[in-house]
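R.M. (postdoc): so does anyone remember the format we settled on? I'll just put the structure tokens first.
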């Protein structure tokens, strides 16, 4: 097993991927996170494709992604305070169970033929409210079970499994929709959420829990998390740069299937081709994350973020060329650099956040960083309905602006 050497203060520690993977609780946590993300990925993909097929409306598809994410982002400060109060493990289990129940209710409503577009958007909005618990909870648990010098490796493993989900998620969702329809696909999603909650029961302490401050009112603790983020220059810089980049990613979620539908000219199935392209993107994302985890250390996280944002802006215009092949190539290159970007963002955020603030700040920071995604999906629906090429170029501009913001706003050193 190839190993990397990282400076950990007064000693030099060697750590490999196998060593991190066999650390207590890492494997069951990765399994639970993978199941939860598979369900989430299938939810987004299934909803977008079903809306495009059922309503023939890119705008409504974009709004579906908007409602599926934005409410959760807005409530993330309270979710972060709740996560610190009840514990990351319990919070993640709660979110997974609630998500499974809500998706099941959507399926029941759809089968009963009374699931209208406004009702669907409302249900997706409610679904998103507990999402920050899993988003922040999983990333809070990792620093509790691995030492600081293993952060990059643990995050690379986490992100490589997440990228693998980007392979299986679209393929599974596209195949299920094509074979049996959207309702059975969503029913499968509900079951996967429940399985994710059950698998997390295998993650047991003791954890390296940081000391907590005296308990305050939940809203006050949520506000303190926001204040901490705003006072931390690194977290502010990440929020500005990565949220701008997420506008680009949100545009792609809608623009890619629309581009596939236009370019295959009715000679193939949009669901299968779109799923294949996102799967290629996921494979390349996993490879990029693993490579970044091997070469990255505390001194290179910031520059990795800047370089990968520039690279994203450079490859996105390839998607504007009117060919399914060039779309696949462009998205493959995009996935490769995205893997490195995400490892850098996660590791730098964990390293420059004080342990006792990790739950609140991780949840708030992740949601603030992703706030651009619902904006991107809504914008992508409008742009793709007019010109897919313009949508890809706008996405490239957003990634370039993110690179500039990362260079200017993220300090070279931080606590």
């Amino acid at each position: 097993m190839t190993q990397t050497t990282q400076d950990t203060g007064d000693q030099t520690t060697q750590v490999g991927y196998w060593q991190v993977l066999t650390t207590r609780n890492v494997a069951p946590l990765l399994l639970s996170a993978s199941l939860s993300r598979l369900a989430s990925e299938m939810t987004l993909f299934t909803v977008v494709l079903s809306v495009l097929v059922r309503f023939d409306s890119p705008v409504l598809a974009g709004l579906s992604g908007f409602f599926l994410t934005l409410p959760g982002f807005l409530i993330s400060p309270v979710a972060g305070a709740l996560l610190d109060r009840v514990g990351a493990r319990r919070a993640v289990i709660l979110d997974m169970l609630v998500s499974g129940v809500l998706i099941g209710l959507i399926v029941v409503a759809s089968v009963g033929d009374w699931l209208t577009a406004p009702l669907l958007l409302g249900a997706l909005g409610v679904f998103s409210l507990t999402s920050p618990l899993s988003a922040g909870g999983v990333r809070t648990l990792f620093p509790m079970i691995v030492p600081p010098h293993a952060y990059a490796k643990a995050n690379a493993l986490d992100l490589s499994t997440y990228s693998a989900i980007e392979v299986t998620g679209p393929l599974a969702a596209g195949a299920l929709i094509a074979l049996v329809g959207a309702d059975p696909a969503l029913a499968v999603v509900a079951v996967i959420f429940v399985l994710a909650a059950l698998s997390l029961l295998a993650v047991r302490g003791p954890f390296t829990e940081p000391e907590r401050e005296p308990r305050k009112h939940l809203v006050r603790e949520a506000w303190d998390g926001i204040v901490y983020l705003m006072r931390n220059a690194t977290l502010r810089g990440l929020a500005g740069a990565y949220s701008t980049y997420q506008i680009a990613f949100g545009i792609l979620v809608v623009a890619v299937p629309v581009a596939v539908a236009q370019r295959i000219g009715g000679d193939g199935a949009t669901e299968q081709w779109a799923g294949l392209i996102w799967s290629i993107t996921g494979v390349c994302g996993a490879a990029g994350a693993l490579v970044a985890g091997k070469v990255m250390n505390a001194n290179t996280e910031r520059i990795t973020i800047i370089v990968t944002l520039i690279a994203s802006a450079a490859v996105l215009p390839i998607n504007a060329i009117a060919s399914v092949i060039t779309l696949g190539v462009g998205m493959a290159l995009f996935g490769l650099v995205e893997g490195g970007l995400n490892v850098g963002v996660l590791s730098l955020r964990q390293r420059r956040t004080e342990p006792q603030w990790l739950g609140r700040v991780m949840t708030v920071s992740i949601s603030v960083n992703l706030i651009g995604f619902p904006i991107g999906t809504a914008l992508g629906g409008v742009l793709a309905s007019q010109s897919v090429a313009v949508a890809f170029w706008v996405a490239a501009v957003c990634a370039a602006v993110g690179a500039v913001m990362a260079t200017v706003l993220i300090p070279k050193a931080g606590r």
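R.M.: ...and that's the designed sequence above, right after the tokens. Also worth knowing: The first helix runs from residue 17 to 21. Residues 260 and 273 are 7 Å apart (CA to CA).
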